[in-house]
Amino acid sequence: LTIINTYIPPQSVRPSHFTVSISDLLFNPNTILMGDLNAHDSLWHSNIQDARGEVLAVEIDDSDCGSLNLDSPTRLPNNSQPTSP
InterPro entries given for it (predicted)? Predict the structure, then answer.
């Protein structure tokens, strides 16, 4: 079993040449991929959607992987809306 924890910086601090992709990580057998992707999509029950999240959701859909998030937030900030990383 391989466990991969990844971080993708927010779009506001990324280099201009940065392209988001996790596809290389999705085709390793017996792998759990988790992390802070700074992306939003309904696949992981986010009530916000953005282009980055859409790209990553398509990559996940095109693989044999899936999302294990439940339909409940895992981050409950005091001053903004809950999220499901």
Answer: Endo/exonu/phosph_ase_sf, Endo/exonuclease/phosphatase
